[in-house]
Amino acid sequence: MAKRVELDSLSCFYGKFRAVDDVSMTIEPKSVTAFIGPSGCGKSTVLRSLNRMHEVTPGARVEGRVLLDEEDIYAPDVDAVNVRRTIGMVFQRPNPFPTMSIFDNVASGLRLNGVRNKAVLEESVERSLRGANLWEEVKDRLKKPGAGLSGGQQQRLCIARAIAVQPAVLLMDEPCSALDPISTLAIEDLINELKDEFTIIIVTHNMQQATRVSDVTAFFTIAGTGQPGKLIEMDTTSKIFSNPGEKRTEDYVTGRFG
Amino acid sequence: MTAATLDQGTQAGLSTRRLSRWTLLGVLVADVLVSLGLFAVTPLQGRADFGVFVLLVYLALQTMLSISVEGRRKAVDRFVLAVVVGSFVVALLPLASILVYTSVHGAKRFDTTFFTHSMRNVGPNDPGGGAYHAIIGTLEQLALTTVIAVPLGLLVAIYLTEYARGRFGRFVSFFVDVMTGIPSIVAGLFIYALWIQTLKLGYSGFAGSLALVVIMLPTVIRSSEEMLKLVPPSLREAGLALGMTKSKVVLRIVMPTALPGIVTGVMLAMSRVAGETAPLLLTLFGIDQIVNDPFHGPQEALPLFIFNEISRPSPEAYDRAWTAALTLIIIVMVFNLLARLFVRFASRNRGSARA
């Protein structure tokens, strides 16, 4: 199920502005990769370009290639909708659909794929909620609105919703920044479990979080305002945090900068 | 901020002297009594004048008392609060008086004859007669107008919020604004010129509905557009990131989320249109007998009925006009109630975040 993601000279633009310049990297399947770097360095933009959510912003476009197991997701005959079904995403703020129940939230992705069989839906919703460590807390109120849950529960609901369609890759854009430490811990434990099944890429501002959850860390930064963001280095998380190859990385992870 | 710039009260500690509710109530009672006396002995008179006089005197007394006891900041607070509450009451007065006045006058002819008979063979000065033909006409015209204007307006609103990019979107948006400003008589004239004069399709309830559509459309577009804009972009992103097509995101996520607001907007538009008279004058022609078919021949409508009856110099016609006005208000209120029930039913899955 999990797939390899390869970025080949990827540059991201907002109109004429080059936000991210020439990023190349390979992300192995069933691993957790953390993107770290100061605000505005383009790590979220890179993440969003991996499932073609970047182009949803008017005027935004990319150059270069993103390969999902050898297949370029930006090839002209590729439909962005199919890409997003294969590469799921969890956002910074929990965003359950307010008009839907807990059950319907998780089932929403499957339903649009034409799954109508009630037994199949129920089985999939339970598996996804168990996968997101939320089942025990909500199994008695599946018909209640998803917006009635706590922030941490809502975020796990969003993760359940994302994994219900069984994507190959799961993108997480600062999934814990709106959550308290206990909910954060729950999500981090979840990430460790999920990497058995999915390729996970997570953007985080929290460097302890990167060391706790990720196998590989990529450090991005910008030279200054108006300059494009760049990938400085990418290596195993232990190496990045103990003995990075670049001075800029070391300054950032030790807190001397940013 | 230094201590010197703070209120006197805060310098002495955290607690300050406060005016009690009873003191203020006493001031109000004294104010009313003194004013009553003044209105009895001086040339001052009139109920409205009395209200304004009492309010102004109370404002002055309260402010002076508050400054001397509580300090300037609290006095300003009390003054503004009193002005806000006073304005609310003033704004509510016309509404309440319309309801009361219409109910009182409308009750005279609120009988079965009124709701089961037309004005056929009833002379302008005769008693009896009813507005059945006008009620049928209004309901049919309103239904036709809504059936045309709501889908059209919703689609335009969806286009404007979800799809419009650049020049054409601004062009459409500009013309919606222009349409909002069209006087209702012009909408009537337009349909008269197009439908009746040029296409020679004749007066009918449907022609009236078309004129009403011209009035209703921009209102529906604007209100739906505002409601669709209120749907957080993060929900659209969540849908897209799940691999939903854009149309699915609009239909399954954006529309249901905005539905209560859209329904409210549609209700307001319908209420407004239900009372329009000018566009109907030129398109319905008006008739004093029951016409069930809105597509052929002249029809009556409640606003037109009211207009005609009130123009007649007889107390019987006058009473019929009031009852028709009351009926119109009731129809609009019933529609509003039904819409609220629908919204409550449709959004029972909604979280506590949005009631």
Summarize the structure.
By secondary structure, chain A is of the alpha/beta class.
Mean pLDDT of chain A: 91
The CA-CA distance between the termini of chain A, in Å, is 37 Å
Cα separation of the termini of chain B: 42 Å
The CATH homologous superfamily of one domain in chain A corresponds to P-loop containing nucleotide triphosphate hydrolases
Overall mean pLDDT of chain B stands at 89
Structural class of chain A: alpha/beta
Shape of chain B: flat
Description of the structure:
The complex is a heterodimer of chains A (258) and B (355). Chain A is an alpha/beta fold. Chain A has helices spanning 43-49, 80-86, 102-112, 118-131, 135-138, 151-164, 181-194, 207-213, 237-242, 247-253; strands at residues 5-14, 17-27, 32-36, 60-68, 71-72, 87-90, 169-173, 199-203, 216-222, 229-236. Chain A has a domain at 5-95 and 168-253: Rossmann fold (3-Layer(aba) Sandwich), CATH 3.40.50. Chain A is built from ten helices and ten strands. In chain A, strands 6-7-8-3-9-10 form a six-stranded mixed beta sheet, sandwiched between helices. A four-stranded antiparallel beta sheet of chain A has the order 2-1-4-5, covered by helices on one side. In chain A, helix 6 packs parallel to helix 7. Chain B has two domains: 16-108, no CATH class; 115-354, Orthogonal Bundle (MetI-like fold). Chain B has helices at residues 8-11, 21-41, 47-70, 72-106, 112-116, 132-163, 166-180, 184-198, 205-230, 233-241, 246-274, 278-281, 302-310, 315-346. Chains A and B meet through helix 2, helix 3 and helix 6 of A and helix 10 and helix 11 of B.
Helix and strand arrangement:
The complex is a heterodimer of chains A (258) and B (355).
Chain A: E1 5-14, E2 17-27, E3 32-36, H1 43-49, E4 60-68, E5 71-72, H2 80-86, E6 87-90, H3 102-112, H4 118-131, H5 135-138, H6 151-164, E7 169-173, H7 181-194, E8 199-203, H8 207-213, E9 216-222, E10 229-236, H9 237-242, H10 247-253
Parallel strand pairs in A: 3-8, 3-9, 6-7, 7-8
Antiparallel strand pairs in A: 1-2, 1-4, 4-5, 9-10
Helix pairs in contact in A: 3-4, 3-6, 4-6, 6-7
Chain B: H1 8-11, H2 21-41, H3 47-70, H4 72-106, H5 112-116, H6 132-163, H7 166-180, H8 184-198, H9 205-230, H10 233-241, H11 246-274, H12 278-281, H13 302-310, H14 315-346
Helix pairs in contact in B: 2-3, 3-4, 4-14, 6-9, 6-11, 6-13, 7-9, 8-9, 9-11, 10-11, 11-14, 13-14
